[in-house]
């Protein structure tokens, strides 16, 4: 189960309307009026049939479309003949039958994630970026992911580990696993030889050979801490993505009480866009706020216990009303 999925009203506001017709603005040097490849754009990879393209109008409204020969994509401002885009370079402008110009570009991963079909809520781009850095996912790494969901994080992990790495994903629900597989294969254009998707519980996964990184996006990641300790190489990173403060507390305290991990680090990320126009420079009124918490910790060498905490817990932190895991030696306050 993935953390909070913010509604569209929490997404950054669309850019303000542009004055004038973008189609009448001067193009980049070397681009022909028709958008055909010229000497200056010959190195660009043309848009191909079967690929996805992002169409954006002058109000910032975006559509993700698959280029199918002979087909027309219909909008409320007229149809767009997809044959007019096939073979063109990225960054061309095509007009609908209603005369509205649309900018055509290949979608970024962040575009695809926000538009992909969903089973479970997706891991949003701002959290995906933090996971890749906090877990230090590197080329050639073997990463185990539990809670494949809709496959958004899987796409980013596969890119990060590269052709020499491996991502092993586990998903308890058949329907979510099927959606994740379709989304990943659609994004990459087919099955990925560096990816395994298993329907089942991650705690039943083999612990040998040991893996470099474990990313848990699930309801109760604390139930997997003992298994993760067996599966990770010394120095390996365990990263958990949870939605609520109760899940956050239980995950941190379980990893802390285990004794075989470093002191867990907890964080959340919020993104606020800015409006920049001449002398009007100010934060936008909307932002992407809370979506989930990240907990990261590293595996110690076998038989080594984590050093004791130097700071004293806040008064009452482990009082009589606390019923969760306790760090070694911690008595009731």
SSE layout:
Elements: E1 52-56, E2 62-66, E3 72-75, E4 78-81, E5 92-95, E6 101-105, H1 109-115, H2 125-134, E7 142-146, H3 152-161, E8 166-171, H4 174-188, E9 195-199, E10 211-216, H5 225-231, E11 232-242, H6 245-258, E12 265-268, E13 274-277, E14 280-283, E15 293-298
Parallel strand pairs: 7-8, 7-10, 8-9, 10-11
Antiparallel strand pairs: 1-2, 1-6, 3-4, 5-6, 11-15, 12-15, 13-14
Verbal overview:
- Residues 1-43, 301-333 are annotated as: Disordered.
- The protein has two domains: 8-107, Roll (Vcp-like ATPase, Chain A, domain 2); 111-298, 3-Layer(aba) Sandwich (Rossmann fold), CATH 3.40.50.
- Helices cover 19% and strands 23% of the residues.
- The protein has helices at 109-115, 125-134, 152-161, 174-188, 225-231, 245-258, and strands at 52-56, 62-66, 72-75, 78-81, 92-95, 101-105, 142-146, 166-171, 195-199, 211-216, 232-242, 265-268, 274-277, 280-283, 293-298.
- 33% of the residues are buried.
- Residues 4-34 have low confidence and may be disordered.
From the 3D coordinates, which CATH architecture of the largest domain would you assign?
Answer: 3-Layer(aba) Sandwich
Global mean pLDDT: 86
CATH class of the largest domain: Alpha Beta
Structural domain tally: 2
Helix content: 10-25%
Work out the helix count.
Answer: 6
| CATH topology (fold) name of the largest domain | Rossmann fold
Note the overall shape: elongated
Topology, number of strands: 15
Poorly predicted runs are 4-34
In order across it, which strands form the biggest sheet?
9-8-7-10-11-15-12
SSE string: EEEEEEHHEHEHEEHEHEEEE
Would you identify the CATH H-level superfamily of the largest domain?
Vaccinia Virus protein VP39
Strand portion, in percent? 15-25%
Oligomer: single chain
Distance separating the two termini: 34 Å
> Biggest β-sheet: count, sense, barrel?
7 strands, mixed
Pfam families: GCD14 (PF08704), TrmI-like_N (PF14801)
EC number: 2.1.1.219, 2.1.1.220
Protein name: tRNA (Adenine57-N1/adenine58-N1)-methyltransferase
GO molecular function: tRNA (adenine(57)-N1)/(adenine(58)-N1)-methyltransferase activity; tRNA (adenine(58)-N1)-methyltransferase activity
């Amino acid at each position: 189960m993935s953390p909070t999925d913010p509604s569209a009203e929490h997404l950054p506001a669309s850019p303000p309307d542009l004055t004038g017709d973008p189609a009448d603005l001067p193009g980049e040097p070397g681009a022909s009026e028709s958008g055909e490849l010229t000497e200056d754009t010959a190195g660009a990879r043309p848009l191909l049939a079967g690929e996805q393209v992002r169409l954006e109008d002058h109000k910032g409204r975006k559509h993700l479309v698959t280029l199918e020969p002979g087909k027309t994509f219909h909008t409320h401002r007229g149809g767009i003949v997809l044959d007019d885009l096939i073979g063109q370079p990225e960054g061309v402008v095509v007009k609908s039958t209603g005369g509205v110009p649309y900018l055509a570009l290949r979608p970024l991963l962040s575009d695809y994630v926000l538009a992909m079909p969903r089973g479970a809520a997706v891991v949003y781009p701002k959290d995906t970026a933090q996971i890749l850095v906090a877990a230090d996912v590197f080329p050639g790494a073997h990463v185990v992911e539990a809670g494949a969901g809709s496959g958004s994080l899987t796409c980013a992990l596969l890119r990060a580990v590269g052709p020499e790495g491996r991502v092993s994903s586990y998903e308890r629900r058949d329907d979510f696993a099927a959606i994740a597989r379709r989304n990943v294969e659609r994004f990459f254009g087919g099955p990925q030889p560096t990816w395994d998707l298993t329907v089942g519980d991650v705690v039943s996964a083999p612990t040998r050979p040991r893996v470099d990184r474990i990313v848990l996006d699930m309801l109760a990641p604390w139930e997997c801490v003992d298994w993760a300790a067996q599966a990770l190489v010394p120095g390996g990173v365990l990263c958990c993505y949870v939605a609520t403060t109760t899940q956050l507390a239980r995950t941190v305290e379980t990893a802390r009480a285990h004794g075989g991990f470093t002191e867990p680090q907890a964080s959340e990320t919020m993104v606020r866009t800015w409006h920049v126009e001449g002398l009007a420079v100010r934060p936008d009124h909307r932002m992407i706020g809370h979506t989930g918490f990240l907990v990261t910790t590293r595996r110690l060498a076998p038989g080594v216990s984590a050093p004791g905490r130097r700071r004293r817990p806040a008064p009452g932190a482990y009082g009589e009303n606390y019923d969760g895991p306790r760090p070694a030696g911690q008595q009731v306050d």
